[in-house]
């Protein structure tokens, strides 16, 4: 793999994704790894990421000079660039001057033949640094400069060692991907062989080896991760797999059918459906506190899943079989964020609907453990899953249960489902699905306002539209949807959904607002 050494400023994941976008496999490792530990992973190349520190700060992470003698190509970025300069005897100056944001970098010397090949002589780069490199280490050539950084990029071609002061992994660095790919393909001479087709083949092979001829069980939530994980396992072991779909009645219009009909048609999977709509409605009756709703939904989900599980285990036992494995849709960011540990203890922290049972009698199968979300979607498409499933926007595990502000009832769910379906259909028709991260549609069931429809006054509920743009749901901004589109959604909802006489738009960023209303 290409190893991305994480100096702790959230850039490492982005770098790893960019490397994979170039069809090269990459993994993130902590900066506490020694040179020996790094080399033990047999890296094809190493990238040192950005980080928050000054190389002179107390306890600042450093890099061993021996790493640069190991014959492995290395690319230092921002902090990694400075740590590299420092380790190799260059001069890093604490000027007290900061360069932050868009900065123009000018190619000098042989830069245009090195990792800056194919980029303009003067290019936009994204900077965030205090210290700057004033002298390149011996044997290195300066490739670029900026106003604040006399040495903004350098190279030692003979040893395949490179570095840039800016952040090539962020989109604000206009030629960033080109620079990164120059390092990978020209500097390190790697082959672009990490493709969706290869990922599928490799995972299918691994799953077969892990599962052998045992039986395996899998939960489907309607979301992307569980669907793609199940489809991979199905591709690998076919009928040995049984999927469980707990229909809690809190999904949006058409989503249960996507699982029960479209997913099954695309994969041929054995599906066990637990129709539990009544159970969830009964458990939620009279409850309006959001956290209580979440707890109830999580608890009932686990119970329903376990009941389904027992039925499947019993059926297998009747045929003399035992279920040994459980599939989980854990993704690479979950693995990295929980410390990168190995093994079964690493349960997906944010699992849809409050997590699976803890008393794991099963060994876990986690075919998405090495993948980022966009790779999961690509794998799903490669496996022939419907676009509605692989392109699905984030949707909370407790579903519409936390999009009704107030008590959840059958009537309110039906009403919200209608309004939500209209909003989603119009967003799609306007071609704006990709502009919007997600668009919760919320029913304010405890609020009523006066309206007028036809000859009469109405006393109905408002529907809130909450379209947001975001990178990772940690922060978000409200999406500036065209007024025409908002007008169409509003007209249709107030005309077509009985009981709704107002549509309002949420124009709050996160923070201070959250994405969901509950
Ligand atoms: P908030 O509302 O906290 O949401 O800004 C951030 C992201 O998480 C989703 N979300 C949930 N997902 N169970 C989930 O699986 C939950 O209880 C839950 N609450 C919020 C939300 O849709 C957004 O993507």
Defining traits:
GMP Synthetase, Chain A, domain 3, globular, 14 helices, 9-stranded mixed β-sheet, 518 residues, Rossmann fold, 5-stranded parallel β-sheet, 3 domains, single chain, nucleotide-binding, binds xanthosine-5'-monophosphate, ligase, 33% helix, GMP biosynthesis, alpha/beta
Description of the structure:
By secondary structure, this protein is an alpha/beta fold. The protein has three domains: 2-187, Rossmann fold, CATH 3.40.50.880; 196-390, HUPs (Rossmann fold), CATH 3.40.50; 403-505, GMP Synthetase, Chain A, domain 3 (2-Layer Sandwich). The chain has helices spanning 11-21, 35-40, 79-87, 176-187, 196-211, 224-237, 255-267, 277-284, 290-318, 332-337, 373-382, 387-390, 410-429, 483-496, and strands at 2-6, 26-30, 45-48, 74-77, 91-93, 99-107, 122-129, 132-135, 141-145, 153-156, 161-164, 215-220, 241-247, 270-275, 323-327, 363-365, 404-405, 441-444, 449-453, 456-465, 468-470, 476-478, 500-505. The strands form five sheets. The protein has a nine-stranded mixed β-sheet with strand order 2-1-3-4-11-10-9-6-7. It has a five-stranded parallel β-sheet with strand order 14-13-12-15-16, with helices on both faces. Strands 17, 18, 19, 20 and 23 form a five-stranded mixed β-sheet that branches. Helix 8 (277-284) runs antiparallel to helix 9 and helix 13 runs antiparallel to helix 14 (483-496). It is globular and about 80 Å long. The two termini are 42 Å apart. The site of xanthosine-5'-monophosphate has 13 residues, from loops. Xanthosine-5'-monophosphate (XMP) is lined by residues 294, 350, 352, 394, 396-398, 438, 473, 510, 514-516. Residues 194-392 form the GMPS ATP-PPase domain. Its EC number is 6.3.5.2. GO terms for molecular function: ATP binding; GMP synthase activity. Catalyzes the synthesis of GMP from XMP. This is GMP synthase [glutamine-hydrolyzing].
